[in-house]
Amino acid sequence: MEKKVISPWAWQDKLSYVQAVEVKNVQSTLYVSGQAAVHPDGTSSKEDMRTQLALAIKNLETVISKSGFECRNIVRLTIYTTSTKEFTSKCFDLFQDFVAKHGMKQTVTLMQIVALNETLKVELEATVVK
To answer: Which InterPro entries does the UniProt record give (predicted)?
Structure first.
C-alpha cells in the first residue's frame, strides 16, 4: 500500500489532520461504524464528553486491532459531537494524543449534531486501509 498526503497549507498541521490522503495498491479497506462511549456490557456512558471520548477512542482502537488493521492507517475520521465548542475546548488534546500515539495522517471532519443515541456526546467513525 502507498499513501500520499496532500496538504497545500500548513495551518492544519497544528490541528492534527491533513487535507487529503491518496491511497494506492490497497490490499483491504475497513469501514468502522461509529464508536462511542459504550461499555463492554452495551450500556452507554453517562460521563462527561472528555471521559466519553477516551472510551470511544479505546473502542475504536479495539475494533481496528481485532480486525487485523492498524490505527496508523486510518485515512478518514469523522467526529460527531453534541458540542464542537466543548470538544475543541475540553477534549481536543485527547484527540491530538490519539493521532500522535499512532502516527496518523488522516483527513478529519468534525460535525456538531443535535443528539447521539441515549446519553452519548461523541462518536468516531473511521476508514482504515492496509
So the answer is: RutC-like_sf, YjgF/YER057c/UK114
Look at the chain and count its residues. 130
Average pLDDT, the chain: 97
116 closest CA partner among 52, 67, 27, 65: 52
* pLDDT, tens digit (0-9, with 9 covering 90-100), for 28-87: 999 999 999 999 999 999 999 999 999 999 999 999 999 999 999 999 999 999 999 999
Rounded CA separation 96/109 (Å): 14
Q: What range does the domain containing 56 cover?
A: 2-129
Q: Strand order in 74-81's β-sheet?
A: 29-36, 122-129, 74-81, 107-112
Q: Model pTM?
A: 0.94
Of 34, 15, 31, 8, nearest to 104 (Cα)? 15
| Count of the separate structural domains present in the chain | 1
Q: How far apart are the first and last CA of the chain?
A: 6
